[in-house]
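Late entry, evening session. Most of the bench is empty. Finally got around to the prediction I had been postponing all week. Sequence below, unchanged from the version circulated by S.P.
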Amino acid sequence: MEDRNCELLFEYLRSILYDSKVKPLDVEGLDEPFQKLGMGLQYLDKAVQEMKQCSAALSKGDLSSFNPARENFLCENLKNIHANLNHLTWQAKQVAKGDYSQMVSYLGEFSEAFNTMTEQLRERENSLKLIAEKEKKHAEMAESYSQLLMELIARSEEEILVISLDGQNLLYSNRRTEDEVRNWEIYKKWVRQIENGRRKNDRRKELYEWKWEAEDSDHRFYKITTGKMKWQGEWSYVHIVQEVTEVRAKEEQLRAEAYQDMLTGIGNRFYLREEADEILDTGEQLALCYCDLDHLKYINDNFGHLEGDEYLKFFVRVVKENIREEDIFARIGGDEFCILLRSCAREDAQNRMADIQREFSERNKTVYERSFSCGIIEIPENHSPVKLEKLIHEADENMYGQKREHKNSIKIK
């Protein structure tokens, strides 16, 4: 009998290690002394399959699909590789933006190649700047634009205005007349700005080129490049006005997505860090509540991940209904949340969280019990400088008392 159990377990282990599709193991079919070992091999099977999926995603450069379970020890090295690739992706984007100070020191021969590339790009940019300076001086000595070039400018989507240095006269517009100038309101704003600038710093008018932004009364946004040039023998300002309303809206949308938890709609860890750093600098009284939902894995395993998602979203809905608009609420992990209650003492925070726990447990009851564990840290008024991560760690430690009480409390009704 023992040989039969060993043979089944060994065949299952061999299948885990070598088969593309693992043959299932019937744990109930094993003798009782071997069932625990069978369950352990099933856990190993799940960890190995997850490791294969994660490594396959990394091998294709798919960083967004990499999401191994926290407890999967087989993925530790893959997690490090994923973190390195994420950081390297960010560094490459910075280099693409012209930040050649990025250096890589943790990827062996690739580090040397990457650093050599950025150095060469820096040298190339400096060389191009020298060439551009020479071309600029040459352009300043050239005659006025030809008729063909003027026609091309007239058809440009960007609005081009040439204004006298005193701001009194419109010398040229590619919209032909003042009545056709769409951004005349922006031009008037510029006149006021340049006048204020003269009082503060008369050297500004000596700059060759600078960029600024403006908003009109219809809440449309513009990027404007302004420079000095000679127009028909006289120095003047040229303004190139580009509307960027849609671009700005898209940038705001991307920023919102970067700071938002996509499942629950509340802020994520990055949002919490940015908001908390700003609030902590004010020295106001705060209560930080670290919440960890109980039994999420049980619900996922027994009722499916969709139900687990609803469990998370219901928790978020209950919390939002019981905190104020000025309080900060963020999801910082799979089942971990952080609430920053402003101008709130520890006792008030405890009462508030007890009410939330009660409502979360009793409202819209399901076949399983709902609960979450909570740890609370008070930050007194006029507190000394403190780091958010330290506060979260302390609240996390305080939470474990409740976590132990809730650990074995899951019941089916």
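Two things to note before I forget:
The chain has twelve helices and nine strands.
The chain has four domains: 2-87, 98-141, 147-245, 259-406.
Will write this up properly tomorrow.
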